[in-house]
Amino acid sequence: MKRLKPSRAAALLEQFQNKKILVIGDLMLDEFLWGRARRIAPEAPVPIVEIERETLHIGGAGNVAANLAQLGAKPMVIGVRGIDANGERLCGEFEKINIDTCSIVLDSSRPTTVKTRIIAHSQHVVRADREKKTPVNKEIEAQLVENFLWLLPTVEAVVVSDYEKGVITPSLLEKILTPAIAQNIPVCVDPKLKNFEYYHPATIVTPNQNEAESASRITIDSSENLSLAGERLRQILQGASVLITRGEEGMSLFENNNEVVNVPTIAREVYDVTGAGDTVVATLALGLACGASMLESAILANYAAGVVVAKVGTATASAQEVLAEIDNFFHHNVKE
Question: Is 278 a catalytic residue?
């Protein structure tokens, strides 16, 4: 197993502080209604959930920014919101964690994306989405690109967070990726299948296993097929590194030589995988911004994801929690 010593991890996590990272992608609100289900509705075989409390979190690309802030970085966020009450709520949540919203573009033609989850006894019962997924128009796209190019010289890494809600288009990718790579700024992409062939040039792309299988058209059911899928994805992405997140199987990293390096999962208990991909790409970007190797950054991201999946709902991991996770792993698994 590839390891990262606590001393090295602590040094990198210290460097996370105040790093400027630019996040562009689909912003949304994650609304959670928490309650208990004690009976079934008389009009249909569905549970009646008695709501006891409500919580609100920044979701999508916003959750990447929230993860960056929790890890000590200074994220800058670019995206779209509607001219509506939920858009105001979204900006309010950003302001609570000291993230500037001046580069968020207002679009009168679409609502602010909201995902409402009803949870009973810590289990998801249903999710309701309010959104418009059509691509943004050319005027909105031009504003997004203008904001991106204006902020780019001030940052140390870029995250493209594609939730397929209309912000990340082939045209936008063409206009933002090349300038970032030309300035030697690491670009980390959390992808969706629809745009997969357009994520280049980029430093690293982080599909989950389902996305990797669909994009490569290879079922990952053996180590041989895993290697073939990784090689195929790097061909599609024209040489970008690939980090496939594989749930309980951990992560698989493909770099220049197309050899796979497996990073086993370290999560002791998994309660909710919501937003874990956001945590991975945020931590990965910070590691690269600090000069860590791709593998070191992936290992840090793996530990951070282990912290997040042990929490219910959209969650983040602090630098202290990540270091504690690493210390705990070494205490229980590594003999001096």
Answer: yes
